[in-house]
Design brief:
Number of strands: 8
Order of helices and strands: EHEHEHEHHHEHEEHEH
Radius of gyration: 16 Å
Largest sheet: 4 strands, parallel
Helix content: 40-55%
Number of helices: 9
Shape: globular
């Protein structure tokens, strides 16, 4: 299961996401949690199952939920008490329901951390090669810059917007029967210096 926590600027949601990850790991659940701002939604909804929205965006909930619904994503408002306390337990309970809990335990999300090999980082050409390969994979893949944001790996604009330079570390995540093979191929692309 993939949970995305969203707030205005993306700072508070990062803390909630960290607690969510910790709680999911303690419960033995295969849950991939990302965080970001409302402006990042277009790049993240295609690789999200549940969207948790900070309470300060409650006046925008209907519009955000409608946008999420186009991708089959369930949207929930995090209550003030949960968001302010950064309560991972309550946030995870809100994101999960009985059918999803069973599915989450059975389905593993694979992750791979890679150091960027291209001399000039993921600029237009290597980002295009990477995004095309991610699109061809036929499964949702995310790319997260260490200490930064997450993007849909199939979105060239999303990948470029992460500002990934030579030597930066990124984490790729994919879920599905062929996830390991997909991550192997994408890892090889990222390790290759396309500027040589």
């Amino acid at each position: 299961m993939r949970i995305h926590v969203v707030c205005g600027a993306g700072a508070s949601s990062t803390f909630v996401a960290l607690r969510l990850r910790r709680t999911a790991a303690q419960r033995g659940l295969a849950v991939h949690v990302t965080a970001g701002s409302e402006s990042d939604l277009a790049d993240t909804l295609s690789v999200t199952d549940v969207l948790l929205i900070g309470p300060h965006l409650s006046d925008r909930f209907e519009a955000i939920a409608e946008q999420a619904g186009l991708f089959g994503v369930r949207a929930r408002i995090l209550p003030d008490s949960v968001f302010a306390a950064r309560d991972g337990e309550a946030a995870l309970d809100l994101a999960l329901d009985n059918d999803l809990t069973h599915e989450t335990k059975a389905s593993a999300i694979l992750e791979r951390t890679v150091q960027i090999g291209s001399t000039h980082g993921l600029h237009a050409r290597p980002a295009k090669l990477f995004s095309q390969a991610a699109t061809a994979a036929g499964m949702p893949v995310t790319i997260t810059k260490t200490g930064g944001k997450t993007a849909n790996a199939a979105s060239i604009l999303g990948v470029i917007s992460l500002g990934i330079n030579h030597g930066d570390e990124v984490t790729l995540a994919a879920e599905g029967d062929k996830a390991e093979a997909v991550l192997d191929k994408l890892t090889e692309l990222l390790l290759t210096d396309h500027d040589a």
